[in-house]
Design brief:
β3 and β4 form a beta hairpin. The chain is α+β, with helices and mostly antiparallel strands. The chain has one domain (20-132): Nuclear Transport Factor 2, Chain: A, CATH 3.10.450. It has a four-stranded antiparallel sheet with strand order 1-2-3-4. It has helices spanning 2-17, 22-37, 41-46, 50-56, 59-69, 71-74; strands at 76-86, 92-100, 105-115, 118-127. It contains six helices and four strands. The longest helix is centred in the N-terminal third of the chain and has 16 residues, at 2-17.
């Protein structure tokens, strides 16, 4: 009994600090994509990391960057969530495959960082060539 209690006391902090499951991460990304589609700029900006918020300052400036630099995210056709891995600098990287409305496939890596209210999107990298392999 004493060993079980000791094991629980040792494991509890580890379980509390464990990253959320992949569903939590994909839910955040999906909420942002849906917010862009609905042109709910505040909701899309809300899941950005503090660093992204500081860089763009307003939902409108952030949306303009996404609209011009990531049109496949702004108006996707089909979205599929692929593998997820730990990022060496902390957080998680979620690979996403997006088919745009013209039918072109795009592979993106979303850097996800834990925050006070859950996961935040800290960056998105469009993968090219060999990096895009699923």
């Amino acid at each position: 009994m004493r060993r079980l209690l000791l094991s629980c006391l040792v494991a509890a902090p580890l379980l509390m600090s464990a990253p959320a499951d992949a569903g939590d991460i994909t839910d955040v990304i999906q909420r942002q994509i849906e917010a862009f589609q609905a042109e709910d700029l505040d909701a899309a900006f809300a899941v950005a990391s503090p660093g992204i918020k500081q860089m763009f300052r307003t939902p409108e400036r952030f949306a303009e960057m996404v609209r011009s630099g990531y049109p496949m995210v702004w108006r996707p056709g089909d979205v599929r969530y692929l593998d997820r891995r730990a990022h060496p600098g902390g957080g998680q990287v979620q690979r996403v495959m997006i088919r745009d409305r013209d039918g072109t496939l795009h592979f993106l890596d979303y850097l996800m960082l834990p925050g006070e209210g859950g996961w935040n999107i800290a960056g998105v990298q469009i993968l090219r060539g060999a990096d895009a392999g699923a």
